[in-house]
Amino acid sequence: MSATSTGQDLIQRRAALLAAEPHLRARDIAARLGISEAELLALGSETATVTRLRPEWPQIIAAVPALGRVMALTRNDSVVHERKGIYGALEGGPHVGLIVGEDIDLRIFFTHWKSGFGVSERLKEGGTRRSLQFFDAQGVAIHKIYETDKSDAAAFDALIAQFATDHSPLGIAPAPERNKPLADSEIDVTGFRAAWDAMKDTHEFHGLITKFRVERLQGLRLAGETRAARVPAHSLRATLESARDRNVPIMVFVGNPGMIQIHTGPVSNLKPMGPWFNVLDEAFNLHLREDHIDSAWVVSKPTEDGIVTSLELFSKDGTLIATLFGKRKPGQPEDLAWRDIVTGMIEKEAA
């Protein structure tokens, strides 16, 4: 929290902001106040009960299935991914966990989780909305779990009470410095391409870029057009529209350092709203800032099941915004209808 801002000062400034802009979201309020979203939540509120949670993240997530149908939310600076469903059993260990289900599909990196809150918010229209909210060392949101009309409210309250702790200082850390990437001339491009062609599984790609000390976007630039081809930034919209029109089920990956959240299935209700392009389906919502897409790439990776093709979106600073695949399970070849949609983007660009 800013040394020049007391808690009471921040509360008063927050109240003034909300009086002027009552629909302002927490992330934007925090940015206007010059604090993190976790700090904003820790201030408390007259309209919400905020409870700090013990840092027992795997145990908390393992208890979430008892809440019933909830809404899982994961975001980064450019996109919000919301998926409704019931959490399945937590697998993995204390550092990396996963939940694999038809509705809720998560890859969890607990080492980035630093604070958590249980929130019971009184709504203007009446009633209460409960949530669990988790943040990194900088107070940036990693993952949120919201009550729905099919959740077990009593189970929500019991979980929050079970993991409640005293309000200890939040301890927001400065953002770590990004490692300076190697110059293209320092990369073993020949070796990188050979290792790419030798991949047996798409999950090997992370190890590949680590081994060759290449950043993800840099790796796509250096891979050669047969492996990664740049396509127009508007390819996201065109891809989602084609998937809808052809009824092709897809996978949408959105993440941050502490979480990757995946939607698998069709998309139907697509709606642009200002700079945002949205999927507004009953179980899946996506809100993506199209103006944040600096580059889009169609990427082809070899696997034991054949080529797997993805659309990858990057911001101006090289951060991965989102990745789209065709619906596929290990051991199955890629849906050729999906491949036709994304490779068609390359053909349009070349025309």
Question: What would you note in describing this structure?
Answer:
Helices cover 27% and strands 32% of the residues. It is α+β, with helices and mostly antiparallel strands and 351 residues long. It folds into 2 domains: 7-162, Heme iron utilization protein-like fold, CATH 3.40.1570; 184-350, HemS/ChuS/ChuX like domains (Heme iron utilization protein-like fold). Strands 1-7-8-9-2-3-15-14-13 form a 9-stranded antiparallel β-sheet. α9 (235-245) packs antiparallel against α10. The mean pLDDT is 94.
Tell me the series of helices and strands, N- to C-terminal.
HHHEHEEEEEEEEHHHHEHEEEEEEEEH
**Helix/strand-derived class?**
alpha+beta
- Assign the CATH superfamily of the largest domain: HemS/ChuS/ChuX like domains
**Fraction in beta strands:** 25-35%
**Alpha-carbon distance between the two ends:** 53 Å
Question: How large is the radius of gyration?
Answer: 21 Å
Low-confidence runs of at least 5 consecutive residues = none
CATH architecture verdict of the largest domain: 3-Layer(aba) Sandwich
Number of strands: 18
Largest sheet: 9 strands, antiparallel
Assign a percent range to the helix content: 25-40%
Look up the CATH topology of the largest domain.
Answer: Heme iron utilization protein-like fold
- The number of helical runs is 10
Strand order of the largest sheet: 1-7-8-9-2-3-15-14-13
The total tally of domains equals 2
